[in-house]
């Protein structure tokens, strides 16, 4: 029988960026907060010997244990969905800090176009640009409304940048710290882009260019360019993450109780109010009920949607009728680009997760789509993240796959090749969605999230176009061999592609369009909030974390307002 604990003002489900931000802001406001993290405690002190590529990058030591919790996948409704048994297409974080521990740190703001994509696309191209099967919608917030929260997140994380993006929305302040170092290969990309009349700028980075103290008094150290960011924790405390910023801030207030190994399995509800959550201690197996005046779902995209589904809160999306919003608008991200092989040698083994030069000339609606079969685009970038030896083995296309010539080419091109890549925007389609699997369950008896997803004609057209633009820049850089990314056909759950999953718990202007309002407050249960990239109505041409951090601050403001006055906030 579950043990009922004393009630608190706020309980968060997950303690990564979103959970940490909500906890810190609410605790600073005097609210009593409990943070339930199903993973373990970890921090900078645990990463002193982190440069173990096999342990962290190949065997995914910081990631979710799929023997306990995974997703099932199929391309369409006629296929049988099967569980993802090994981490493949995306990497799900677990433990204090969540994905913020092992992210690369690229911290963009979505474009003003993104937040009003339906209105602005229809205005420029007419209402039938993509057709009725694409579920394009405005977000319920404009860029200008969200900008103060974006600014706050950047100040908390100390983001390093150069303010040279001519396509960005208006900024209220410059980046808190200056840009990272510009290496020879990045300078070469910048020069080539300018020769093509494009507008390059340094990637905004959470790997800090200098030691920085944020407004809450937390110190983030300077990046050492070791090349071990993505899939790794930072042993220098130089990569902004929840456990070096907002979590310490929350703990210092004395109003935050952080509990590890606490897996939430149900949102408890009476009438139209959430009363708390039920969770299981994953070590002892004990079951607890944590009552709370406000429940905030701050876990990953899939788990936020799953908890709402298994708790029977909201109407699940039905692709046959088009009714329901929970699980709708799932989007991934498309990865066009081109590889280049050079005779010139570069120190590709050095770098940082966000060290790069990029451009937005082919992102959003920054170029004319009138004669193109897609909308939006992607941020094109050359990044120097550190070519680690196990995972990096580039060879030209005509190289044998084994033998002396393979070895020779592998060694030669290890420091003489790199790729220009884009994060292509993904538009919601009526056949791409999240649901509950009718067959497979997790270790606690709950149905797995079932992912139904495939690339669409929009995706394929965008990928082909942007890959050609990447090849143009690579040619201008002087590569002797250029290999554009192969055209995409059907999506597969392997190999790794990106962890930028979005949608399923969409934010909207009206209850008919989404799951939560623009304070991330549930439309049906006013003391329940859900914040993750699941709130995105589509996926942009950027990394999601900068925009997600802003939404987390917006959500925290909503929780505090609710604690003062109650009721719907919009």
UniProtKB/TrEMBL annotation:
Gene3D superfamilies: FAD/NAD(P)-binding domain (3.50.50.60). The keyword Flavoprotein applies. Coiled coil: none annotated. Keywords: FAD, Flavoprotein, Oxidoreductase. It holds the Pfam family GMC_oxred_N. Residues 428-552 form the Glucose-methanol-choline oxidoreductase C-terminal domain. Residues 163-182 are annotated as: Disordered. It comes from the Bacteria. InterPro entries: FAD/NAD-bd_sf, GMC_OxRdtase_N, GMC_OxRtase_C. Residues 143-329 form the Glucose-methanol-choline oxidoreductase N-terminal domain. Residues 166-175 have a biased composition (Polar residues). One of its GO terms (molecular function) is oxidoreductase activity, acting on CH-OH group of donors. Belongs to the GMC oxidoreductase family. PANTHER family: LONG-CHAIN-ALCOHOL OXIDASE. This is GMC family oxidoreductase. It comes from Lysinibacillus irui. The lineage of its organism: Bacteria, Bacillati, Bacillota, Bacilli, Bacillales.
